[in-house]
Amino acid sequence: MELLIASAVGVLSAAGIYMVLRLRTFPVIIGTSLLSYAVNVFLFASGRLAMNAPPVLRDGAVRYTDPLPQALVLTAIVISFGMTAVVVIMALGSWLSSDDDLVDRPAVSEGDARAPSMPEGDA
Amino acid sequence: MVLTVVAVGAHAWFSGTTGTETRRPLLPVTPIAVAAWAMLIAATGFLVAAHRNRLAVLMLMGIIGLMVSVGFNHFSAPDLALTQISVEVVTIILLLLALNFLPNTTPNESGALRRTRDAIIAGAGGIAATALTWTILSTEFPIAPISDYHLANSYKGGGGDNVVNVILVDFRGFDTFGEIIVLGIAALVIYALTEALLSSTVRRRLLNRGYEETQAGDAHPLMMVVLTRVMMPVILMVGVYIFLRGHNSPGGGFVAGLVVAIAVVTQYMASGFAWAARRQRYPYHGIIGAGVFVAGLTGIGAWLAGQPFLTSAFGYFRIPPMEEFELATAMGFDLGVFLAVVGAVMLSLESFSRLGYRAGTETSDHAMDIDPSRDEELTPAAGEQGKVI
Q: Which residues form the signal peptide (chain A) (predicted)?
């Protein structure tokens, strides 16, 4: 079972890294979302896996899974929505105001009046 | 920068010592887990293969999010599963709204060389992530975690059975307080950027924008309107239920806030932005503010009792005909979290749909386009004019 989780984290990160390296804003946003799935699952898994042991106190229960990573990941999931939304509106702004959704333009050619597009603001 | 990362990695590789290296007994593989894993891997593979079709990407993202949520539930994290699935809904709606303006396909620009290079980098990253996760999962904790403290003190100190929620609102309340503020700021940034876009030349371009595809004739269909109207109180009830049980069972302010936001978003989807906006009584900025204010006030309340900021208290009360129930100050804090999440999610989604709304266009004041109970005769052309959601 541990190998399934480990490989799922690996596949999600690989797909995320590949998408982040694309040239347009939309795939980059998708890539950061995939990476955040991978990171969330990884953080959650760092509390080790346990089945049928939810961290809700009950009479007679002998073992509970680690609650701390769960609490940290819960807020991370909600915050990642906020961050995605901010990056999306930035991408949308750059597309609507310059008709261009390239993530980084190689060089501004001579006589090109348009400013180079904003670099992707996601950390 | 690459050099620095490689150097740090090399240093750790050569000088680092491993922990105790006690192997953990591995969990048995179940068929259900394999099926979910296969769906996740297949969806991710198709996503990368078909990433030029942006709508398909969003559908596959939905599958991935659902499988991650199922996985959380499988490994004893019901709170995370609930949060993941409701965040997934609002994220997909948000990306669909954005896709309304962005092109539907990604052009094929990078050559074979660049794609191979990216695939090699991604593959290396993936293998590293797998190896790291495997190493962590297959060994025991090198030092004892502090989680036992939380498990032991959750009921005694926080008065709640759901340890995850008690950690969020009691043990790490200050952290959560900061997080709802960050979420509120993110929503306000989105609002400000939308305002800036709408007051620039972009607005004219948006108004002159043609539609690439033919519009659906019935933008606000009767079935959808009636269904969402019936479901609204039911979903709100579920939201309240999830909120109230949060301290003792899976649920809490974050999940309840997302559920209520989804209930409100369905009204926007069914009857259009203009219709919903006219019936909106409280501005979403105010709801965010109220959330942060309520959470802060609960924290300050602890000062009056001579305790540090955000210290929580709880007690058990009884109103005669009912069973004994618990009241905790953490509930006030969770209410703040709830309000901030509702406000932040709604303000973000509303800002995106404002971009698509044309103030000049004539919008119907009716909830649905074709309503059998209405007396007036609808002209057949009415349905063909492009309605703007």
A: none
